[in-house]
Amino acid sequence: MRADAQRSYDRILAVAGDVFVEQGTNASMNEIAKRAGVGAGTLYRHFPDREHLLDVLLKDWVAQIQAAVDQTLAAGLPPRELLITWFEAVVRHISVHRGGAARLTAALGNTASMVDKWQGLATANQSVLRHLEARGAIRGGADTIQICRLVGGVAAVADAGGLLRDDTRDLLALIADGLLVAPAAALRCP
Amino acid sequence: MRADAQRSYDRILAVAGDVFVEQGTNASMNEIAKRAGVGAGTLYRHFPDREHLLDVLLKDWVAQIQAAVDQTLAAGLPPRELLITWFEAVVRHISVHRGGAARLTAALGNTASMVDKWQGLATANQSVLRHLEARGAIRGGADTIQICRLVGGVAAVADAGGLLRDDTRDLLALIADGLLVAPAAALRCP
DNA sequence: CGACGATACGGAGAGGGTTTCCGATTTTGC
DNA sequence: GCAAAATCGGAAACCCTCTCCGTATCGTCG
C-alpha cells in the first residue's frame, strides 16, 4: 500500500472508532470522512461499506478480550463471582459502541466470513469455563458458543435498552446460576 | 374519525404488518405507503413515525401472549419443560418480524411511553412463574422483568443471527436451569 | 338536496444519508 | 525529474424520511 493510502486508512479507522463510540454504529459515514479529513471516495475505497469498517474495529476490540481473561482469572474469586465478573467484562468489551454488541452477537456462529472475529471471544470464554470445570464448579453440557450468545444477548439488550449496571449484573447472575453447580441450593443446606 | 380516514388507517396497518414481516422493521415507509395505496402524507398523519407504527403492531401481537400462557399451563408439563415451552412461545411471539424482538426488548422497563406494550408480556410471565412457585420448583429472587429481558435477549439474538430452533431451545434451557431449584445439588448436602 | 366548513388526501420537495465515478493530484520507481 | 500508477476529493445520482400545502372528500345543517 502506498504511504499516503496507509495514512488515510489509519486515520479513518481511528476517527471511525471515536465516532461510533460517540454516536453508535449508525453514525453518518460522511461525518467520519469529514472528521478524518478525507473525501467520501477515499473512505469507501478502503472500506466498501459500513460493515467492513465495523468488522475491522470489532476485530481489534475483541482481540483485547484475552487480556481481560487473564486479569479476571488472576483475581482469585470464588466461582460465582468469577463467572459474573468475567461476563461483565465481556459485556463491557463488546459494548464499546452502541449497536456493536448486537452486531457481534448476531455474527456469533456464522460460519461465513467473520469466524476470526468471534473466535477470540469464544476461546477466551472457553478458558474461563475450563478453569471452573477443573474445580468441579460447573455443570456439564453447556456449549461455549451458546454461552457467548447468551452473554451477547444480555449485552445487546443492555445496550439497546440503556440498562443500568446493576440490572445487567442481575441478568448475568441468572446466567451464571444456570451454569454453576447450584450454589443457591447449596446455601440452603447448612 | 372520518370514515375514509379509518379505511386508510386500517389498510396501512395491515400492509405494514405484511411488509415488516417480509423485510424487517427497517422496511421503507414509502414502500408501505405505496402498497397501501396512500400518499406519504397520509401515512405520516396517522403514524408520526416508524416507531408509532411498530408500537401499534407490537401491541396487537403481545396481546396474543396471554392466550399462549393459558395454553402452556394447560399442557401439564413438568417444571423444566413447562418453563422452556413457555419461553419458546414468547420468543416465537415477539419475533414476528425481523428486528421486532430487539425493539420490544429494548423497551422493556422503559417507564416512558410503551408501558402497556410490555405489560402484557410481564404479567403473562408472572403467571407462569407463580404457577411454578406454588409447586416449589423455582428459586427465589428473580424479577419478572429481568427474566423477560433475558428471554427477549435470546429472541433478539436468535432473530438477528438466524439461529436454528434447537440452538434457541438450548439457550432457553440454560436460562430455565438458572431459575429452577436444582435437584442435583440437594444430593450433595451432608 | 345543496352547499359549506371541517377533515383528510397525495405527492412534490427539502434535507440528509449512502455510494459511485472520474478528473485532478500525489507518490513511486527509474 | 518524469511518466506511469496509485490515490484522492467531492460532485452527483439515488434513495429515504418527513413536511407542507393545494386539492378532494366527507358530513352536516339549512
From TrEMBL, chains A, B:
Superkingdom of the organism of origin: Bacteria
Keyword Transcription regulation: yes
Pfam families the UniProt entry points to: TetR_C_43, TetR_N
Keywords: DNA-binding, Transcription, Transcription regulation
InterPro entries for this protein: Homeodomain-like_sf, HTH-type_TetR-like_transc_reg, HTH_TetR, TetR_SbtR-like_C
Limits of the HTH tetR-type domain: 6-65
UniProt DNA-binding residue ranges: 28-47
Protein name: TetR/AcrR family transcriptional regulator
UniProt source species: Jatrophihabitans lederbergiae
Lineage: Bacteria, Bacillati, Actinomycetota, Actinomycetes, Jatrophihabitantales
